[in-house]
Amino acid sequence: MTNALHKLDKAELQTYLQQHVPGVGRLLEIEKFSGGQSNPTYKLVTSDKTYVMRAKPPGSLLKSAHMVDREYRVMAALEDSDVPVPKVYHLSGDVSPIGPMFFIMEYVEGRIFWDPALPECSNEERKAIYAEMNRVLAVLHDVSPNTVGLMDYGKPGNYFQRQTGRWVKQYKASETANLPTMNRLMEWLEANMVEDDGSCALVHGDYRLDNMIFHPTEPRIIAVLDWELSTLGHPLADLAYQCMQWRLPSFEGLRGLAGLDRVSLGIPLEEEYVRQYCMRRGLNEIENWEFYLAFSMFRLAAILQGVVARAEGGNASNPEASEVLRKAVPLISGMACEVIGELVE
């Protein structure tokens, strides 16, 4: 296998896996998954079974980014919970046979839906899939961090204030062009910060359709993936982040639902989806919804800008796709400015 990011020596990796993953068998094949922009992910086929290896990218990385060790920890903690996660087997050290840190988890056979419009599904199945996403999100937020050993998984204080500060720094560290919409959005978020209401839960950080594996024939989630951005924080961050997809267009690298007749497709409206979540968790009407949406859009734009910057530095996991995403940063930040009524000429 040829890969510009990691030089994988199959014999060396085989020896390492046999030492650290019981019953791993003989390594037969290594295949890099084409999707994903953050942490390179590989399918490892052995004589015993199939595994997944998820690694940090090589090169100079932004602080607190690509935290595969956090992914490993949270999935290990949730193994016996009602949240469906893959079983994890081993986390390497900072220096590994492939260079960067990585972890090994089980390969879950099922369906991944890349388009939120679910063109391959019937109306009935679309409705069931969205209901299942809503249910699992509520289940995740009902998990007690103390019960699963994650009481120290995040910092105390106002989650949105902390996260806004973090992503402002991340964005500025990866900025490649001056974007007035991003500048205005950062100013508005800092000036209109919501107060800390004390809500705290384990949040996924990137909860969306294509980060889930569904049962091969049933509208049931059997694994939630990509926990890199997970932390202890405000549960509405996850809800708003997913609902952002209702407002995003279907634009090259983006996959949104804007402009679609969701009722005719069997997909719930944003208001209905939020109401279902609130009912599941016993919550009242949500105030400051525009703030949560704007924050989610800003954070996504900042994440995508990091991908663009890594592409310029030659470290992107998928360089071709990252170039497409360059156009998405001003688009998303412009939409966020529209949500908060702060139009930028």
**CA radius of gyration:** 20 Å
Counting copies of identical and different chains, the oligomeric state is single chain
* DSSP strand tally: 9
Biggest sheet: strands side by side, in what order?
A: 1-2-3-5-4
**Average pLDDT across residues?**
89
Spatial shape: globular
H-E order = HEEEHEEHHHEEEEHHHHHH
Main sheet overview: 5 strands, antiparallel
Low-confidence stretches: 1-5
The percent of residues in helical segments reads 40-55%
Structural class: alpha+beta
Counted by DSSP, the helix tally is 11
Overview in brief:
With 345 residues, the chain is α+β, with helices and mostly antiparallel strands.
What attributes characterize this protein structure?
345 residues, 5-stranded antiparallel beta sheet, alpha+beta, two-stranded antiparallel ribbon, 11 helices, 41% helix, 9 strands, disordered N terminus
